[in-house]
Amino acid sequence: MSLLVIEGLDLEIHGAPILKGVSLSVSAGQIVGVIGESGSGKSMTAFAVMQLLPDGAECAGRIDLGGHEVLTLSEAHLREMRGREVGMVFQEPMTALNPIRTIGDQVAETILIHERVSRAEAMTRAAEALRRAELPNDRFPLTRYPHELSGGQRQRVVIAMAIALRPKLLIADEPTTALDVTTQAQILQLLKRLVQEDGMGLLLISHDLAVVADMADEIVIMRRGEVVERGAAKTLFREMQHPYSKALLAASTHVPDRVAEPQEAPLLQVREVVRDYTIHASGWWGKTHTFRAVKGVSFDIKRGESLGLVGESGCGKSTLTRAILGLEEVQSGEIALDGKPVFTGHHANRDIRRRMQVVFQDPYSSFNPRWKVGRLICEPFHLLDNPPKGAQRADAIAEALESVGLRSDDQHKYIHEFSGGQRQRIAIARALIIKPELIILDEAVSALDVSVRAQVLDLLADLSDRFGLSYLFISHDLSVVRSITDRVLVMKAGEIVEQGPTEAVFSTPQHEYTKELIAAAPVLPADAA
Amino acid sequence: MLRYFLKRLLSLALSLVVASIVIFLALEVVPGDPAAYMLGINAQEDTLAALREQLGLNGSLIERYAGWAGGMLHGDFGISYTYRTPVAEMIGERLWISLPLALFALCLSTVIAFPAGIWAASKRGSVVDVVVMGVTQLGVAIPNFWFAMLMVLVFAINLRWFSAGGFVGWDAGFLLAMKSLTLPAVALALPQASILARVMRSSLLDTLSEDFIRTARAKGLSKRQALWRHALRNALIPVLTIIGLQFSFLLAGAIIIENVFFLPGLGRLVFQSISARDLIVVESVVMLLVFAVIVVNFAVDMAYAIVDPRLRGRR
């Protein structure tokens, strides 16, 4: 007997078709994974079950939840259903909680809305729900506010809210996308345990094939509002038929071809770099503390080499990046490009600075939306003493855009006219325009869909071959790092705990922390494709 | 929370000291002799000398500042040159009109703006929203003195519900006194209410699109419950900022309205003493207004901390 049956669900928002004939079902105790890229309609399917759709949405078809026809329920009945029959966990734990109410209060609210119990009783049960979500009361009192918790802990609060009334169905929409790999593993473990304990059905939505493959009993693959393929998780990857499913799997395991051999001569030398932050203590008379974000890090990047840097948030990756780029002065140690120091005195060395560029994670917010592309990608020219003008400048713009696979006409457009993948290409064009030798890619492909990510990785490999570029590739996504780097550094709490050739580090990790990271990373089944 | 309070309090005291020094120096750097400026070009030499003595212009800078600031600390603001009465008394009398008027107008503005803003936000795009936005647009655009004159025409001259101006005094009884402040308070409040309602609406709309509202709805709260329990308090921060700014403005910025209604308030006092070149009064009233602004800002800071727990632990 299925808990949730969706049959032929159509959804239109202001007349635009979003979902077309979506069918899937979830049984008690079953985990169904929904995979799809952005715009595939996977989240909208979840919101349709909750009937929490944007204004102007119209559903047709059938959604049966534990015997109720969801599409015919009144708003009052829907409110009874939400939270009691179905709980929901969202992608962004940082913003999913009300910042000005305590966690106990917010979990207890789920209970108070649906049951006539005293506040004290609700609080007791909230403490129990939090304990089940592995936030024990003695360490995480109910009076804590969300800002006093980490991302993973906040996600546990959201989970506690969702399961407080032991709903029959839990919907988790990208529950771990914003989290570090080890936190992700813990949260997934928690969800799995709760499903087993309560016999809940779990609808797990993700863009990450490996996460779903690890967790789900059944997998549904969606594209442009339609289900293209569904099947048992054990066999789906072997037996899938639809070309899109195959393409998706190929893209997520894609390894770009790279021919360039790194030369022996080091391009970037980082020696014993220390970066301290001063933390002003509370009160005017309190002591100031220093926080050492980077603790004596040394490494080289060879010419033409692609070096990976992995580690969890807060490990010092971004601090190190800023130091290499000369954006922040280091307290001790040396950073030199081609033998010349990045810093002379207290100022970044312009001659060196123009030989490196950076590409950031978010292709949406790293551009000024009011500038045209042509002007945007010329920004690094301010590093040159004699920036090209007139025809020379136009040529440089055209060349940069064409080398990342865009057309030179695109320079007259604004950034909102491009898709996420194209924007990231523009970011790469911006980095390329002054012909740097080193490009730092700071989570540069993390926000992209798998198929777009595969294309951008191919582009990066191709550019490196053509221009002899070196990369410092920073990511929390181990599979991407594995596919594109020659060597890898593993960073933890400001120190490099392990480094070596990528394949060696991944296949035979030496340090405990590296082993932990690799064990935590979800993997596709070995027999996939 | 205590630490936050003490820090804000200390910053309040420091701001007052700095403000008093600036006001004092402003008078010092006025080109020429303040006494000569006050008396005009035909002044006698001995009158000038007497005024200089009275202004405390004889003596070193620090002595004079200490005398002036020290006097204010125990309520001695000096003696008005034009009225020959202690400034403290004059200010006291005026304050008994300006302060209640400002509070009255602020209460009216809040009482109008909150429901209007919340209503418009909760029914975004509906007729209610369009009407509230339209009316507040007018309220922002119409000058308050014009609106005041219109009200005098309608309610005082035609309907004879209120008197056209003047203040009956608190001795006449609370209700009568409040009645004579009603038209000016409404005139002051309407533009403020319009601004506040628009801020309330947009702040609430921003908050309603936050992720935690969706979380609240997924728990089973209705739209209305999510608005009242989760959105409203989060939307208050910008609204509190505006309320703080408005109160300071209402206290001192009512000059025109006080003139329209013949109210002997602080605004008129400043206006008259500037016209009469009575620097002693100007200096004292400005200091008082600065004091009021700083105290209001302190109150707003405290209100922030009550609304938002993230601020309490801050440095």
UniProtKB/TrEMBL annotation, chain A:
GO terms for molecular function: ATP binding; ATP hydrolysis activity. Its main location: membrane. CDD domains: ABC_NikE_OppD_transporters. GO terms for biological process: peptide transport; transmembrane transport. It is a peripheral membrane protein. Residues 4-249, 268-518 form the ABC transporter domain. It is found in: Cell inner membrane. Keywords: ATP-binding, Nucleotide-binding, Transport. The keyword Nucleotide-binding applies. SUPFAM superfamilies: P-loop containing nucleoside triphosphate hydrolases. InterPro entries: AAA+_ATPase, ABC_transp_ATP-bind, ABC_transporter-like_ATP-bd, ABC_transporter-like_CS, Oligopep_ABC_C, P-loop_NTPase. GO terms for cellular component: plasma membrane. Belongs to the ABC transporter superfamily. This is Peptide/nickel transport system ATP-binding protein.
From TrEMBL, chain B:
It is found in: Cell membrane. CDD domains: TM_PBP2. Pfam families: BPD_transp_1 (PF00528), BPD_transp_1_N (PF19300). Keywords: Cell membrane, Membrane, Transmembrane, Transmembrane helix, Transport. Coiled coil: none annotated. The chain crosses the membrane at residues 95-118, 130-157, 169-190, 235-257, 285-307. SUPFAM superfamilies: MetI-like. One of its GO terms (cellular component) is plasma membrane. It comes from the Bacteria. It is a multi-pass membrane protein. InterPro entries: BPD_transp_1_N (IPR045621), MetI-like (IPR000515), MetI-like_sf (IPR035906). Residues 95-300 form the ABC transmembrane type-1 domain. GO terms for molecular function: dipeptide transmembrane transporter activity. Signal peptide: none annotated. PROSITE patterns: ABC_TM1. Belongs to the binding-protein-dependent transport system permease family. This is Peptide/nickel transport system permease protein. It comes from Thalassovita taeanensis.
